[in-house]
Amino acid sequence: MNKQPKSSQVKITNLRDIGGYQTPAGQLKTGIFFRSGELYDLSKEAADFLSHDLAIKKIFDFRRPSEIENRPDSKIAQATYENINLLSTPAQANPSLKNMVVNPQMENYMFKVYAELVLSSSAQEGFHNFLLEALSLHKPLLFHCFAGKDRTGLAAALLLKIAGVADDDIFDDYLKTNQARQKANQEILNHFADKLSSQKLKELEISLSVKADYLKYAFAQIKENFGNFDNYLISGLSLPADYQAKFQAAYLE
């Protein structure tokens, strides 16, 4: 069973430890891999929690430069920061941007996002760099985007898949976002209630949630284009052939 940090005591949306899941070869270590939503304008208590309680040493920000400019991460003591822009195309719904655009067919757009996260050169290069650093760091790290649901969600799924975690647990972690973001999503919808039409509000609500079908589609894209997950790691992400074995040796106990 996945063990959670005492993140409920601080206001960091969608923060959780993805360790603790059992695999055939052992349990994924806790206290190493943390996922979250954005780290904008954190309270001192929240920043101290990341620095002292979780001992985060590296933060990976998967957002676009325009997102970061608008809502930069708070500084976390003792942690280095790296931006890895996974999506090179403009956002179609992102409340963190000043000039928000809501795609009129958000459901279809979300599937395109997941295809891009698997197939685009920016995503493949980004995941290559992230996963190599995740293997070599051996210290607590945190990765996030804006909502911590799509870019972050797929990154977490890749780490869990590499660790050998069962698909049911991978999807369980992925879908926890909907509960974890419930309050934050409602605040966003309330903020735009008098600024958007009812139809655009519905599309915005879609963009703030995850569905199992999105992650299934990403895995289907991996199978269709690379044959299997191992080939995706090697051919798609240009990782060493022994990457998965080294990751499991380092992070399973």
Automatic annotation (TrEMBL):
Gene3D superfamilies cross-referenced by the UniProt entry: Protein tyrosine phosphatase superfamily
Stretches assigned to coiled coil: none
GO molecular function: phosphoprotein phosphatase activity
SUPFAM superfamilies: (Phosphotyrosine protein) phosphatases II (SSF52799)
Family named by the database record: Belongs to the protein-tyrosine phosphatase family.
Name of protein: Protein tyrosine serine phosphatase
Native source organism of the sequence: Liquorilactobacillus vini DSM 20605
